[in-house]
Each structure stands twice: as C-alpha cells, then as structure tokens.
Amino acid sequence: MPPATRPGFGAAITGLGLVTPAGIGVAANRERVWSGVSCAAPDPGLAGGPVDFSCRVPGFDPGALLGGFTARQLERFVQFAIVAARQALAGAGRDPRTWDGARVGVVIGNSLGGIPALLAAQAALLDGGPRQVSPLTVPMYMVNMVAGQVAIDVGAKGPSWVTATACASGATAIGAARELLRSGDCDVVLAGGTEAALTPLAVAGLGRMGALSGRSADPARASRPFDADRDGFVPAEGAAVLVLEREEDARARTAPIHAVVRGYGASTDAHHPTAPEPGGEGIERALRAALRDAGVGDCDVDHVNAHGPSTPIGDLVEGRTLRRVLGDRPLVTSTKGVTGHPLAAAGAIEAAYTALALADRSVPPTANLTRLAPELDLDVVHGAPRAAALDVAVSTSMGFGGHNAALVLTRA
C-alpha cells in the first residue's frame, strides 16, 4: 500500500458515468460537448419567471432506467446519481455481486438536495393537512441520502459521505475519495456530484442574486464563458460518478483507465458569501496545493478545464489567476458554454470531461466565445476542438461560501 505522504499518489479513473444536459452516457456527452453546441433552451417548468430557460437532462426516464417502484421513492438528484453510478461500474468492469462491500466507499457532492420533494410536501400540507404529507418526504429531500441510496444500490458498506461545498462539491468529493484510497480505508470509491434543482424557487433566488444570464430571447447563446459580453450563467442539472481505484490495483487487474487523479487542493476565500476574493488568492492556493500534491510544476500543465461559469466577476478572477500561476501555455476551456452550470455536479462532470480530453488528446471548445474578454490573456479554445499532446490537466472549481477546489489529472 502506498505511503500516505507520497506526492503524486494515483487514483485511477476506471469508470465514468454521465447524466447531463449533453446526454446520458459517455458517448453522448463526448459528441455534444466536443461539438460546442449549447444545450440551453426555453424551460416550460420556469415559464413566467424572469429567467425562463435552462439546461435540462434530455430524455431522462427514471422509470425505464431504474424501475417504476424504485424511481417513485427517489428524488431526481438521487436518480441521476444512481444511473451515473451504474454506468460507471459497468464501464469499470466492476460487479457489486463479487466485491467486498466493506472496502467500497461512496462520496457524492450535492448542495440543494431534493427541493422539488420539499416544495411538493409543503403544498400538500397547506392543501390537505399533515396526513397528506408523504412519509417519504424527509428521506427524499435530505442531502445525505444520495450517498446512502447509491451505497444501497451497489452494496457499498465502507465510508459514505456527501460533500457540500456549493459549486465545488463534485471536485471536493473526488479529492476526498482519493484520500480514502490513499489512506487504505477503501479499495474502490464511487465519487462524483449531482444536482437537480431547476425549480422556479431556486432559479428565482439565483436570479435575484444577479448570477444568471438574462438572455431569454437567445438561450442558446446565453452561456458564454470568458467572452467580453458574458452576463451570467445558465442554470443546469446533472450528475457524474467516477469509479476510483489505486493506480497499481487498476493496472494489476488490467482495468480500463481513462486518466489518473494525481493531485487535489482546496481552500476557502473567507471573503464574501457569494463573490470570489477579487485577487484570486483563494483559488490560487487551491491550485498550487493541487500541483504540489501531484508533484508537477506549473509549467507541466497542458490543459485546464476551468470553472468558467460565464459570470462577469468569476471568469475574470479565475482567468487572471490561471494566467498568473500557469502562464499562457495551457489550452483552456469551459464546458459550461455547452452544459450550463449544474451547480454541485459541475466539478465532477468537468473532471470527467478532463479525463476524456486527456484520453483523446483533444480539448473541447468553449461554446459561444466570440470575443475574449480584453482583461484576459489566455489561450481559450473556441470554435472547434483542438488536438494537442495532453499529458497533464487541471480542473478548477469555485463555489458560494468561498470554497475552491482543484484537481490535477494525468494521462493514463
């Protein structure tokens, strides 16, 4: 077992599961994200609100994917995670019927839980009184239940956690999962993030904060990371789950390896509830910690999948920090131009895309970028994918509360 202090400890990504606005499954996501075509569209569920468009997961039928009885007992954010976890395990060649469940962990990022279940229960209470409230209400909306339900579904009896660091939650989960492998507490960990909170209430709250794009007349061009004319993000939903194993274990069983999580860093701005620290010191600390943990230099980074939410302040702070730490060498992208911003799921989804970029040696374009913000001096890929010799990549995440996370991935 590798010593806990060894830099560059490798957590191999042997399975990927994706349920996103770009599609269900790895193949659908690769095709849509690398096409650079936005998923944003008018959303009937948000009709009448000031922001009436979003990026929803297309064609998600929980009854067909999970069975009607099971699906009715689970909120959408949990349904997403279970479907993604099953995909990831199948891709990793892992059969839960054959493993020692006590050596398997689950770490999933989430922030908003089952808001739809809570709203439905409140409406039932007001309309018909306490007896009309479903006994499933509490276990459906509790944030921790996504880890619990995934563990039940796959028979994982090791540690199970939910990380809640806002929009950094998915990346935080992957970093925490890697530590479970490095410490020897687990041999396999399912790690990722999920969010399904596209309700009028949640979207109205984000809109009142000034975080969302107001381009209702042209949703497909609303999310434009790093563009001079960006005005906010497009709300989205989705999930990603990664199967992580110690690199030597994965190679010993000749498992498919998409990429290796080699470093992780985290920090807190301690500045403002929703605005990033203006000088970017917080995300810089996380990024430098991840590089140090991975044992790689700043000049070794070939590609960055940036948080890049398409907000005026966020993109500027992050972009300047990337330039200061990494220079102008890395090929930068923000896949939120295609998927919108799936909040707590973002870091995990983008880590999966980073792994695919390394495996394919191709960087997906930043959708809707037509004129790079003049304050930024970065090589942001746009217009079309760009082939390159990618060996080391970084995925960065920033969240409300001042949470920052960075992952360093290397080619398998």
From TrEMBL:
InterPro entries xrefs: Beta-ketoacyl_synthase, Ketoacyl_synth_AS, Ketoacyl_synth_C, Ketoacyl_synth_N, PKS_Beta-ketoAc_synthase_dom, Thiolase-like
Domain of life the protein comes from: Bacteria
SUPFAM superfamilies, per database record: Thiolase-like (SSF53901)
Family: Belongs to the thiolase-like superfamily. Beta-ketoacyl-ACP synthases family.
Source organism (scientific name): Dactylosporangium maewongense
Gene3D superfamilies membership: 3.40.47.10
Keywords associated with the record: Transferase
Domain Ketosynthase family 3 (KS3): 1-411
Protein name: Beta-ketoacyl-[acyl-carrier-protein] synthase family protein
